[in-house]
Amino acid sequence: MTNIECMAESPIITTLIPTYKRATLLERAIRSALGQTYPHLQVCVYDNASGDDTQETVRRLSSVDRRVKYFCHATNMGAHKNFIQAMESVETPFFSLLSDDDILLPRFYETALEGFKNYPEAIMSATTTLRMNEAGKITGAPLLKWKPGLYQPPEGFLSMLDNMHPDWTGIVFRQEVIHKAGVLDEETGAPSDYDYLLRIAANFPIIVSTEPGAILVSHPGSLSLTPNVFTSPGWMKMIENQTKDERVPISARAHARTVLTKRFIHRIFMTNGFHSIVDRRWHDSQEAAHVLRCDHGLWIRASVLSAASWACENLPFAHGALLTIYAVRRLLTRFKQRPLQRQFKSYASYLRICAPNVN
Fold first, then answer.
1. Nearest CA-CA partner of 170 in 347, 346, 358, 52
2. pLDDT for 222-268, tens place per residue?
3. Please, what sign has the CA dihedral across residues 8, 12, 16, 17?
4. Are the CB atoms for 13 and 5 separated by under 8 Å?
5. Distance separating the N- and C-terminal Cα atoms of the chain
6. What Å distances lie between residue 136 and 19, 221, 347, CA to CA?
7. E-strand spans in the chain?
8. Contact 353, 147 (CB under 8 A)
9. What angle do CA 194, 166, 159 make, to 5 degrees?
C-alpha cells in the first residue's frame, strides 16, 4: 500500500466537486486537488447524471489515487441540489467546494489550515482567489482589498458588503458550519454562494489570507459568460435573508439592505439591461426596464433603458455607438488590470493539466 493510500483512510479535508458534462475541465480540477502540499484529503466528485466521459475520467484518476471518490446521481437534480447534497454528505472535519472548471493552487489547504491553527475559533478560512480567463489574463483578486487576519461578526459581514466578497473556491470550511449555518438556500439562485458567505460572516468568526489559494476560471461555457439569466427573485430572497436574522445588529442589517439593493439595481440596469442590448437580446433588456419601473419605481432608469433598447434595435448607428463605448470601457478595464497581470502572470501555468502528486 502506498503512502497516499494510507492517507486516504483518514482524510482531514474533503474536496467537493459537483459536476455536469465537463469531463476535461473536471480532470484539471481533480488534479489540482491531488497536487496539494497538504495530502490528508479526499476528492469527492458528484456527477449530476452527465452521461458522457465523466465517469471514465474519474475512475481512471481514482485507479491511480484512491483519494478520489465518485458518486453519480440517477437523474439530473439541478446544480443547487447537487451542491447541497454534496455538502450534507461531508464527514471530515473540513471541506471545500470546487467547481469543476476551477483550480486549486498547491498550497491552498496548507495555507487555510495555518489560518485555523492561528485562529481556532474561526469557522471558515479564506485565501485569495485569482479570477482568470482561459488565456491566462487576470481579471480580479477580491481579497487583496482586505486586511489579512481574523474578522469577528459582524465585521466580516460588513467587509463582504463594502468590499468584494471572497470566492468560495478559495475557502475551507469547518464541517460544523453545515449544522450552524445550514447549506445553500436554493431560492437565492445565482447569488447563492454570496448569500451563504454573508450568512456565515454575519454570525461567526472568519479568517482572511491574501496568499493566492485558487483560480476561478472564466471560459465560454462558464456561468459568468453565458447569456444573462434574470435573477430578481434570487436577489430579493438574498436581501431578505440578510435582513431578517435578529442575531445580527440592526445597523448591520440596515446597511446590508442598502448595499445589496443598490448592487441589485445596478445589476438590473447594466448586466440585465445594457449588456443585453449589446448582445441584441432586446426582450431581456425590456424585461429589465419593466422590473426597474414596476418593482422599484425607478421610472427614469427604466425609460433610459427602454429608449436605448429601442434605438439600438431600430437604428444601426446607435448600436454601433454603444459597441464603441463598451470597447473603450474594456480597454480601460484591461489597463487597470495590468498591475494584477504583472504580479500574478506566473499563475497562468496552472491552467494546464498537470500530473497529480502521487507517491
1. 347
2. 665 454 545 678 999 999 999 999 999 999 999 999 999 999 999 99
3. negative
4. no
5. 11
6. 23, 16, 8
7. 13-19, 41-47, 68-72, 94-97, 103-104, 124-133, 138-140, 149-151, 171-174, 206-218
8. no
9. 85
- Which grid coordinates belong to 297? 419605481
> pTM (2 decimals)?
0.91
Q: What whole-number distance in Å separates Cα of residue 33 and Cα of residue 12? A: 13
Q: Which amino acid, one-letter code, is at 324?
A: T
Which residues have CB under 8 Å from 89's CB, separation 6+?
44, 71
Query: Which residues, other chains included, contact 114 with Cβ-Cβ below 8 Å and sequence gap of 6+?
Result: none
pLDDT tens profile 192-204: 999 999 999 999 9
Listed in sequence order, the residues at least 6 apart from 61 whose beta carbon sits closer than 8 Å to its beta carbon are 27, 30, 31, 34, 68, 356
Please choose, from the candidates 259, 247, 140, 130, the residue with its C-alpha nearest in 3D space to the C-alpha of residue 194: 259
User: Cα separations (Å) of 72 from 25, 50, 244, 328?
Assistant: 17, 8, 37, 46
Distance between CA atoms of residues 211 and 346, nearest Å: 14
- Cα Rg of the chain (Å, integer): 21
CATH architecture for residues 7-222 = Alpha-Beta Complex (3.90)
**Which H, E and C letters describe 215-252, residue by residue?**
EEEECCCCHHHCCCCCCHHHHHHHHHHHHHCCCCCHHH
What span, in angstroms and rounded, lies between the C-alpha atoms of 112 and 145?
18
Looking at the chain, which residues constitute the CATH 3.90.550.10 domain(s)?
Answer: 7-222
